[in-house]
């Protein structure tokens, strides 16, 4: 008897949402090496859909606080910010407010480790 293979089809349906807003304060230096980004006091991580929103978020973040863009991918909606802890938190908060109030997105609470 022939074994049946199960086929799984995944469908990606983007919403208007910020799904992750996290600050890593004083990360282990190995993270900077692995990510290939400049070492600072904090790393901020955002994940957004639709994915192109990462571009808007990067613009808002860099205008709101003294942060750098460590990584931006408009195809996955990933944005990594670097800077001082307070600046990264301020930048992420500004992104949250803009997306919620201006673009009517669902936003995520800012978490920290």
UniProtKB/TrEMBL annotation:
Gene3D superfamilies: 3.30.70.1710. Residues 7-105 form the BMC circularly permuted domain. It comes from the Bacteria. Keywords: Bacterial microcompartment. The keyword Chloroplast does not apply. It holds the Pfam family BMC. It is found in: Bacterial microcompartment. CDD domains: BMC_PduU-EutS. Its main location: other. Coiled coil: none annotated. GO terms for cellular component: bacterial microcompartment. The keyword Kinase does not apply. InterPro entries: BMC_CP, BMC_dom, CcmK-like_sf, EutS/PduU/CutR. This is BMC domain-containing protein. It comes from Paenibacillus silvestris.
């Amino acid at each position: 008897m022939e074994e049946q293979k199960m086929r799984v089809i995944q469908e990606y349906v983007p919403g208007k949402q910020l799904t992750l807003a996290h600050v890593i304060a004083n990360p282990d230096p190995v993270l900077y090496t692995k990510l290939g980004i400049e070492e600072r006091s904090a790393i901020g991580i955002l994940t957004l859909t639709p994915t192109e929103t990462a571009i808007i978020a990067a613009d808002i973040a860099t205008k709101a606080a003294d942060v750098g863009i460590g990584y931006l991918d408009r195809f996955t909606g990933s944005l990594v910010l670097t800077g001082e802890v307070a600046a990264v938190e301020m930048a992420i908060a500004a992104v949250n407010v803009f997306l919620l109030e201006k673009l009517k997105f669902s936003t995520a609470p800012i978490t920290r480790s």
